[in-house]
Write a structure and sequence with these properties.
single chain, mainly beta
């Protein structure tokens, strides 16, 4: 099972993403399992070196680079300012929780990020076949017990949601994450959507996953960017995690504007009629 899911690490060539699955529960342990790290946020650090620091009209990008730029840039706009809760969650993934009462578990951490020190408590409350999550973060000499994100998932961690709030100074819901995972079929899907109406990217989203429905590409990315009312962009990226071949499509106002493919060496090739 893990072999194919872990192949999605290969999409790090597009998205620097590391997926951690570990959601099958030990029959002798009723501790709720943290949802996969990939459901929470993506990490593009491995891919940033391959992206131009500043894109210009004079720069000619390959099909692969165009796909990578579209995904990386939009993701950076959707997740700006969320470094603290992302880091806090990543620390919790590798930690053993403490049982606070019969239905409640807590993951506690202290860490420094930049010049600031933080204390965090991630709480899981089990109610019947569901788990409710809440992350409180405090800053030394600053805000205290700010609920930076909440979430819910079923007890088997095969589907769930996250809601991330922007900042302690602006504590509105910013990002909504909806995810599903079928570990037996080895497929995965997650969508990040901006839900704050005053944000320039309101209702823009990134959707990605692993699928067994496409014989050519087992990974996909759909990037919807409506920050410009005159030109609403939809980028579609299809990727084969074994061969590293892929296809990139750009739509403007629902019309196909560009389509390009690349081979296993990330060089431009003609898209076949079957692709």
């Amino acid at each position: 099972m893990k072999k194919r899911i872990n192949q999605f690490i290969a999409i790090a060539l597009i998205a620097g993403l590391t997926i951690t699955f570990g959601c099958e529960k030990d029959n002798n342990d009723d501790t709720p399992q943290l949802p996969p790290a990939a459901t929470f946020i993506t990490d593009f650090s491995e891919f940033e070196d391959g992206i131009p620091i500043k894109k210009s009209s004079e720069l000619v990008l390959t099909n692969f680079q165009q796909a990578a730029w579209a995904v990386w840039y939009t993701n950076s706009m959707l997740t700006v300012g969320l470094a603290v809760p992302v880091h806090a969650y990543n620390l919790a993934v590798d930690q053993t929780p403490v049982r606070a009462d019969n239905n409640t578990w807590e993951w506690s951490n202290d860490f420094e990020l930049g010049q600031n020190a933080y204390e965090t408590i991630l709480t899981a409350v089990v109610e019947d076949d569901m788990v409710n999550w809440e992350m409180k973060i405090s800053k030394a000499d600053g805000f205290q017990d700010f609920i930076w994100f909440t979430g819910t998932c079923n007890i088997l961690a095969t589907e769930g949601t996250w809601t991330l709030y922007e900042t302690p100074a602006d504590p509105h819901a910013l990002l909504y994450i909806d995810w599903t995972a079928d570990y037996e079929a080895e497929i995965f899907d997650v969508t990040y959507t901006i839900v704050y109406a005053s944000n320039n990217y309101y209702e823009s989203y990134i959707n990605y996953g692993i699928t067994d429905a496409d014989p050519d590409y087992d990974a996909y990315y759909n990037v919807y960017d409506n920050s410009n009312e005159a030109e609403i962009f939809l980028y579609k990226v299809y990727y084969n995690t074994d061969t590293h071949t892929g296809k990139y499509q750009k739509y403007i106002n629902d019309d196909l504007n560009y389509e390009g493919c690349w081979d296993g060496n990330f060089q431009d090739v003609a898209c076949s009629s079957e692709q």
